[in-house]
Design brief:
The chain is α+β, with helices and mostly antiparallel strands and 504 residues long. The protein is built from nine helices and 23 strands.
Length: 504
């Protein structure tokens, strides 16, 4: 009888420790040691950091353009006293696509996290803190004042990450890895979250990790990267490596470019084959040749504008008259396709198109993981954008033929002045017709339209004068306050679409 009773007792004990793979990770133990890393060897973020250290990293971070790659170089210039605290002061250069940002960054000495510096580097400091310096959340130089203190490679765990379902961060294995900066003996720090294994490789007596490949926590689907970096170069030098390097932001500002971009132009459209909804927010409102332009693109389910798409492969193209690609933003970033894991993408690029109306084509190749070709037919939509010359001028854009019909009807009295003015206001507001920047007048005692402007409209409708002459008449109406153009511009209407009739 006792033997029989012992069986269910054994089964109950076995079931009591049966756990899922995720739960198993919570109690999985790590810890490594070797002849070169004897038991008790410790490390902390910033270990061995010295004046003159120069680091170059290729990196990305999920919260900055969904892990779009950039290069961050920094050189430890020396100490800086901030209040009662002594910090490291580093010179920094970031290479982000076509942009170069030059500035400074302050790093703490207990934990080498950025605490201040040049404002233009703010987003990159955030990426640095949450990727290259991330292990300072577990291992710091001093544990006596609330810090974590150094951690031993032989410890079974360094702590648990904050993500829901995240595992312990453990020293998993000793591994020799090769990066552009050289070959290193490292300890792979590892954890599992959302079904993916993340790793950060660190070397004893070296201040920052050598390499990382980590993933964000997701409840289902393929986890997108959280951050991914590798060390490109390291050396200790007494002189600044950044002499002569100029910030493109400063150069753009000196050239008169708007560097404080607000994305206040809006297009909300369906793709040509009605597979997707695409919402585009871009700025500045009047982009200038040679200056930066920024687009925020939301890719949404066609049947539900509140549901973002995942794993969107796309590009922004400029095509010639034969439909051949003149420009690809993906190619300029060294990629075959642009990729948005969340369906919301922030894209910066320099305007290279000639003054006038530029047609940008957003092509959506489909939905699939990065590096895997979508299996569906691509879809697209076009956005027409007025491009200005550096002096603020813009050639007259192509004007749909139906606009000339209305000008002719006004000239022969078929429609009245008010209808004509309201119609032109609509065209300018909707960017169907672009005119050079014109100071808006306040109006006077008379808002009558001079006869010569109506004559111009008739001659323009008949082809007797060019577009420029007709536009000069419109500029006169704006300057005199006879015609007011509402600002700022917002549109859900596609360029070239005919408005409701101007007359009954």
């Amino acid at each position: 009888m006792k033997a029989i009773l012992s069986i269910p007792i054994i089964i109950v004990l076995f079931l009591g420790i049966t756990v899922t793979s995720d739960a198993y990770g919570q109690i999985e133990a790590g810890g490594v040691s070797s002849d070169t890393l004897p038991k008790g060897t410790t490390w902390y973020a910033g270990e061995g950091l010295e004046k003159g250290d120069f680091f170059s990293y290729s990196t990305c971070f999920v919260d900055y353009k969904e892990c779009t790659n950039f290069q961050m170089d920094f050189w430890i210039k020396g100490d800086k006293i901030v209040g009662s605290e002594t910090k490291w002061l580093s010179e920094v250069v970031v290479y982000d696509g076509n942009k170069i940002i030059v500035g400074e960054m302050e790093l703490g000495k207990i934990a080498p996290e950025p605490t201040g510096g040049t404002p233009e580097l703010g987003v990159y400091r955030g990426a640095f803190k949450s990727s290259i310096a991330w292990l300072s959340a577990f291992a710091t130089s001093d544990g006596s004042s609330g810090g974590k203190g150094p951690k031993a490679f032989s410890e079974v765990s360094w702590g648990k990450i904050g993500n829901i379902g995240g595992q312990q961060v453990v020293p998993l294995e000793i591994e020799t890895i090769t990066v552009p900066a050289g070959t290193w003996e490292t300890v792979a720090m590892s954890w599992k979250t959302g079904g993916a294994v993340s790793k950060v490789w660190i070397a004893d007596d070296f201040p920052f990790p050598i390499k990382a490949k980590t993933y964000t926590h997701v409840a289902e689907g393929i986890p997108p990267p959280e951050y991914d970096f590798k060390l490109l170069k390291y050396e200790n030098r007494s002189d600044s490596p950044f002499v002569g390097i100029k910030s493109s932001v400063d150069e753009l500002a000196a050239a008169g470019c708007n560097t404080d971009i607000e994305r206040n132009v809006i297009h909300k459209r369906s793709s040509d084959d009605f597979k997707y909804q695409v919402h585009v927010f871009y700025g500045p409102e009047d982009p200038v040749v040679g200056c930066d332009m920024q687009w925020l693109v939301n890719f949404l389910k066609f049947s539900d504008e509140t549901e973002f798409l995942n794993q969107v492969q796309y590009d922004i193209l400029v095509l010639d008259n034969d439909g051949k690609v003149k420009r690809s933003i993906a190619n300029e970033n060294g990629e075959s396709h642009l990729y948005s894991p969340s369906g919301q993408a922030l894209i910066d690029f320099v305007v290279k198109e000639d003054p006038g109306t530029a047609t940008y084509t957003i092509i959506i190749y489909g939905l699939s993981p990065k590096g895997i070709a979508p299996s569906v037919t691509s879809d697209l939509l076009t956005i027409e954008v007025p491009i200005y010359a550096s002096d603020g001028s813009i050639p007259v854009a192509k004007i749909p033929s139906w606009i000339k019909n209305n000008a002719g009807w006004w000239a022969d009295g078929t429609i009245d002045d008010t209808s004509f003015v309201q119609g032109i206001q609509f065209l300018i507001k909707e960017k169907i017709m672009q005119i050079p920047k014109t100071t808006q007048g306040t109006g006077g005692s008379s808002n009558d339209i001079p006869p010569w402007i109506k004559n111009n409209a008739g001659w323009w409708a008949n082809g007797d004068i060019d577009d420029g002459s007709f536009i000069k008449g419109l500029q006169f109406l704006i300057k005199e306050g006879i015609m007011k153009v509402p600002q700022p511009y917002q549109s859900n209407t596609s360029s070239g679409a005919e408005p409701p009739a101007w007359y009954n």
